[in-house]
């Protein structure tokens, strides 16, 4: 059984730091959205990826903030 560990939405570097503390977790769920700024959300995702490397899979939860076009 596999589960995801959730990282709550916040500044990119804070999310990256939380992710670093979860080294070895196979799946991270990233909470994004809420501010209506897709660019900031993409920065958050990139910061977490840079912090943890290629290994963990991501589930990205934009809390309905993204449109189908996003």
Brief summary of the model shown:
The protein is an alpha/beta fold and 70 residues long. It contains two helices and three strands.
Give, in spatial order, the strands making up the sheet with the most strands: 1-2-3
Residue stretches low in confidence (pLDDT < 50, at least 5 long) are: none
Shape: globular
How would a crystallographer describe the biggest sheet? 3 strands, parallel
Oligomer description: single chain
- Number of distinct helices: 2
Strand percentage lies at: 15-25%
Rg computed from alpha carbons, rounded to a whole number of angstroms: 12 Å
| H/E topology pattern | EHEHE
Helix content: 25-40%
Distance between the termini: 31 Å
Mean pLDDT score, rounded?
Answer: 93
Q: Compute the number of strand runs.
A: 3
Which structural class fits the helix and strand makeup? Answer: alpha/beta
Sequence-ordered SSE layout with sheet pairings:
Elements lengths: L4 E3 L4 H9 L6 E5 L6 H15 L4 E5 L9
Parallel strand pairs: 1-2, 2-3
Helix pairs in contact: 1-2
């Amino acid at each position: 059984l596999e589960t995801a560990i959730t990282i709550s939405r916040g500044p990119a570097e804070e999310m990256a730091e939380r992710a670093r503390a979860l080294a070895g977790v196979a799946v991270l769920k990233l909470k994004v959205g809420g501010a209506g700024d897709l660019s900031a959300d993409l920065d958050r995702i990139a910061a977490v990826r840079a912090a943890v490397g290629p290994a963990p899979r991501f589930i990205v939860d934009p809390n309905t903030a993204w449109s189908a076009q996003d």
